[in-house]
Amino acid sequence: MALYFGSAILDLLAVLTTLLAAVYAYMIWTFQYWKRRNVPHFDPVIPWGNMENPMNRTLSISEYITLLCKKAKAKGWKYFGTYSIMQVNLVVLDLDLVKHIMTKDFQNFVDRGFYTNEKDDPLSAHLFAIGGNKWRRLRTKLSPTFTSGKMKSMFSTLADCGAVLETYIQKSVDNINGNDIKEIVSKFSTDVIGSCAFGLQFNSFTDLNSPFRMHGRKIFDRSSFQDFKFVVATVFPKIARALHIMATPNDTSDFFRKVVEDTITYRWKNNVTRNDFLQLLLELMDKNATTKNGIKGSDSQNLTMDEAAAQCFVFFIAGFETSSTTMTFALFHLALHQDIQDKVRNEIKTVLANHNNQITYDSLNELKYMKQVIDETLRFYVPLPFVTRMAAEDYKLPGEDVVIEKGTRVMIPIQAIHMDEDIYPEPNKFDPERFNDKNKAGRHPYAHIPFGEGPRICIGERFGIMQTKVGLTTILRNFRVTLNKKMKLPLKLSTKGFFPSAEGGVWLNLEKP
Ligand code: HEM
User: Fold this and answer.
1) Could you tell me how far CA 308 lies from the centroid of its own chain?
2) What is the largest CA-CA distance in the chain?
3) What's its membrane topology (predicted)?
């Protein structure tokens, strides 16, 4: 039925044109936000703002932000405004200001401003994503899970996974050569998280169709469209929730929720206790938490089944990709720099000789040079290129004439800080000596923050380093790592996904030294 132009189609066109014009005008107005506030910024482009078109990137996210920050630094900016689509962000470069946001004034920057949709997607409500009091409550509860005492008691479970990796590479070294090393270390870290977070044997090396490995791949090998959907959901969370947009793929969510529920039910039913994260979560569960089978939780604390599943899930996603990325890039650099590799291997041999040639919790703590190699790897290719914090109230940047408005996201560009040549001369040179005690002491404490900083620092830092050390020690004490002829140099980062990964893979050989 035509109302205005005598034709329903013309009416519809008129409505659509008006809507588009309104959105366009709103974008123009939004894209002047930083100009109106007199904050330094680069000119945005409609509709992506200062982002690259997520469907057609030429650089990885990490490289793109680092480039933007380099340009900003060259102009003498300590911070600058950006737009990701219509979301305004303040990128902070000055390390003293970074310290204020992450630590000193943390009470105003508790939230990350991450998209969650607890109703449709219970797994999205995990420790990394949630904010406010809910985060405080959960973080307080989960922190004891990651103390050095707990890490020590969990070490034997981790060492068992190291032994599986060792047997695998010893047996199949001929087949491994000329393979993407990321696939091998990912199987190891999937097994580690399986044992330590879920209390299950994932058997990633023997079960080629392991559903855990399959879901792990699926979460991180996201298409550009999925990335785009997530960015839009972060910018317009209310609309995204109304449209039931999930952060976790549907089948992955069903799979993990069922695994956790079945495992918890089994443990309650059979009074099983184990030295793992799940046991600690179990002890925090609501006495009224009921599984589908009608089994009730046994104590009076208040984590629900879905909350417990969400935490297992975040340990899985945060634990396996970060550590396997770190191991992959460490091995790549060691293959490029045989002298550094020799030094690491000699250290491993000397230290393990004092521990019956066993990889133990204490022996790993003595691997000081390997820790320098890991620190330098995490400087060079940090798994999370940036983190965000959202202002809970208006906040005046200390010493500056700028107020960060309530609800604005502040971005801490970790990778760009790590590549700042004023902090790290020749940033593209791999040099573990940057992290000897003397050189470390001469730098700002916020110059190296691969695990973030302040009260929201990575809860799994100790575990991530321990896991990385077990993987590297297992490989390097048995093999010399060299570049395979299929490895394309210089390494180019993939333009897909959020975590840095090598385009075409990291092709290495393992040779008997
Ligand atoms: C090399 C390994 C790892 C790296 C580089 C890494 C890095 C990070 C970073 C940068 C953050 C954000 C911190 C911030 O905003 O200040 C984070 C948070 C987090 N990480 Fe890790 N991580 C690693 C391993 C792990 C492991 C093994 C686990 C669990 C088993 C884990 C669980 C988490 C969780 C749950 C959070 C959210 C903490 C919160 O918001 O309270 N991470 N990680």
Assistant:
1) 20
2) 91
3) Peripheral membrane protein
Q: Residue 229 is which amino acid?
A: K
Structural domain contains residue 13 = no
pLDDT digits over 243-257, tens only?
888 878 888 888 889
Measuring from each residue's beta carbon to the nearest atom of ligand 1, which residues come in under 6 Å? 127-128, 139, 314-315, 318-319, 322-323, 326, 378, 383-384, 387, 450-453, 456-460, 463-464, 468
pLDDT at residue 391 greater than cutoff 90: yes
Q: Is residue 446 part of a domain?
A: yes
List the structure tokens of 48.
């992506």
In a domain, 76, yes or no: yes
Look at the chain and count its residues.
513
Q: How far is the CA of 271 from the centre of ligand 1 (A)?
A: 31
H/E element, 403: strand 403-404
The DSSP result for 335-383, as a single string, is: HH-HHHHHHHHHHHHHHHHTTTT---HHHHHT-HHHHHHHHHHHHHS-S
Where do the H-state alpha helices sit in 236-337? 237-242, 250-270, 277-282, 305-336
C-alpha distances out from residue 144 to 139, 194, 369, Å = 9, 20, 29
- The two tokens of residue 138 are 């959960």
Between the CA of 452 and the centroid of ligand 1 the distance, in Å, is 8
pTM, full prediction: 0.92
Kindly give the distance from the C-alpha atom of residue 378 to the centroid of ligand 1, in angstroms, as a whole number: 13
Q: How many domains does the chain have?
A: 1
Q: Which residues are annotated as a binding site for heme?
A: 458
Judged by phi (left if over 0) then psi (alpha if -120 to 50, else beta), residue 291 lies in beta
Residue 422 counted as domain residue: yes
Residue identifier of the C-alpha nearest atom 11 of ligand 1: 458
